[in-house]
Structure formats: C-alpha cells, structure tokens
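haha ok so turns out i had the wrong file open the whole time. this is the CORRECT one, sorry everyone. sequence first:
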Amino acid sequence: MLLAGALLGGGLMSIEAAHAVDKAKSKAEEQKSKARTAQKAPPVAKKSATKTVAHRDKGAVKAKSARVAKSSHAAPQAEKKRYTSDARKHRTANRVFAGDADPWQEPGNLAVHSGSALVVAQDGGETLYEKNATTVVPIASITKVMTAMVVLDSMPNLQESITITDEDVDYLKGSRSRLQVGTVMTREMALLLALMSSENRAAHALGRHYPGGLAAFVAAMNRKAASLGMARTHFEDPTGLTSNNVSTARDLARMVAAAHRYPLIREFSTTSGATAEVKGRELEYHNTNQLVKSPTWEIGLSKTGYIQEAGKCLVMQARVADRPVVIVLLDSAGKQTRIGDANRIKRWMESAGASGKQPTPA
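then structure:
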C-alpha cells in the first residue's frame, strides 16, 4: 500500500508538472500574441487618428463655409457698422480735399491739413488752435503784407507814377505777369495789384522805387519785422518769390495784426476785383482769395501765397463767431486745402459758439 501510494503520488506530481508546463507555455504564447498585436496596433491607431483629424478638419471647413455663406447673405450688425464707418471715412476724406463740403466737426476736435497753422485772438492774447506754429518755413507772397506796410510807412505820394522795368521781371521762378515792361501806373494801383492779386512785378517795382532803392527797402522790411517781435523772420525781397523769405505762423500772426491797423491794406487786400489800364488796355484783376467774395465770411485782411518750397499759404484777419481773430495757414498741399482749413476753423468756432462754449484751445 505504501508502494502503491508512493507511485500514485509520483504520478500525480508528474501530471501537475506537465499541466504547469503547458500552462506556462500557454501563458508565454498568449504574451507573444499580445506583443505581436501591440506591434501591429500602432499603424491601425495612426490610420484611425488620421481619419479622425481629417473628419474634424472637414467639419471645421463645413462650419467655416457655413459662417462665410451666412456672412455673405446677412452680415452681423457690427460688421455692417464697421463697413459703413469705413465708407463714411473715405467719403469724408474725399470731401476734405473738396474744401467746403466736409462735415461739421465737434468743438475740440479740429484738425487742419496745412503743415503749419495758428488761430489767435486779434489782440494777440488767447491761442485757440496751433499746429507747428513756431516752425520756420518759406512764406511766399505772404511777404507782400510786409511790403505794403513798409511802403506806407515811408508816406509816399500814392498818385506818383512808377514804371515796370526789366529789373522787375521774375527770372528766378519764371512767373508770368500781364504788366509788360514799360507799363506805367500809379503807386496806389501797384499796391492794389500786389495785395489783391499778388502781382509780383508791381510789388518788386514798389520796393525798387523806395528811397535808397531795393536794398534799402529790404533792410526796412527786416527792421519792421524786428520791431513787431518777429524774431524768427527774414526777408530778402519784396515779392516772396525767393524761398529765403522765411517766418513762422506765430510771427505772421503778429504781422497780420499790425497790418490790420492800416486802412489801405485792409481795403486793398479784401477787394474782390479791379480794372487796371495797362498800355491803353483795360485788364481785369481778381482777388487770389475766393473767400473775400463769400457772404458767410467777414474778412478784414487777406493775403495768399504760393511757391513750390512754401506750398499754398493763407493769412487772414476775420470776425468769426463774433470774435476778431487772425488765421495763419502755411504749407498746404492741395489746391483747396487752405480754403478747406479756413472753413473748418470757421465751423469749429461757430459750433462752439452755438453751444454756448468757447473753442477748446489746442
């Protein structure tokens, strides 16, 4: 029995060992199978992921297309407002260069397009607006305001005849004139044409007929400027054809305020038109500032100027919103820019007056 038990026990152990081996082999085979499955799985997962991403992208494209389609048929209110605003700004910019047609502006928001600008009370006190007001720039025919003051300060005989000669011809810029060499006119007529229609030969002849000649006249111009406190101003001729005639907007405001005290300068510079007899022919001359004919402006003194180096220039004394002011606009680029700027200033002051406020100094 003992022997039979031992043999039976040994047989059972052999059977269990065999089962254990088989179980181990089965487990090893299972692990190898899993390993092979894991090695093959990444490509499948990658393909699946790629498909998923592509599906998302396709959905995003569809969603974006839907938004674009919706926008093209019915833009959101904010977008409509933005496009409307942009269009309005574009139209406003076009109207700015048209001069008079630009929109009303709120007080305090004045913006002018001239390179230098100044609006001051005529008494030289309050500055209402300024832009590069102390920048020294060429002033072109604004010079003729000083020319007129120096001529009148010498207390000449205004009815005395003066003659246009070859010395008065502009060989620097080649500007044209209807006053032919040999033309004889009174000093008064020459002064009128110089101030009203910026006649260069008339202005040059006035300086040349000054006691002591042209050099003495230019020296008197610079002395007059110094006496008025125009510290950054310099003159080299009576016409402004040279770019060496320079000043600042603030200096020119002083000059305009001083010139306004001369009744003849006020009258001649704001005359809208006149007829001059030149060698037996009557010629029509007009004011270079179209605003003097406007019923909406009350202008007491006016002068325009232009050479390429100076751009378009304009100085005025005017009553705006019941206030006497001096307006200086220098270095304007467009044909109507200085006129547009003047009208913007006027509306700016009037809108402030209508609201019971003073224009905000800038």
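Confidence is low (pLDDT under 50) at residues 1-21, 34-107.
again sry for the mixup
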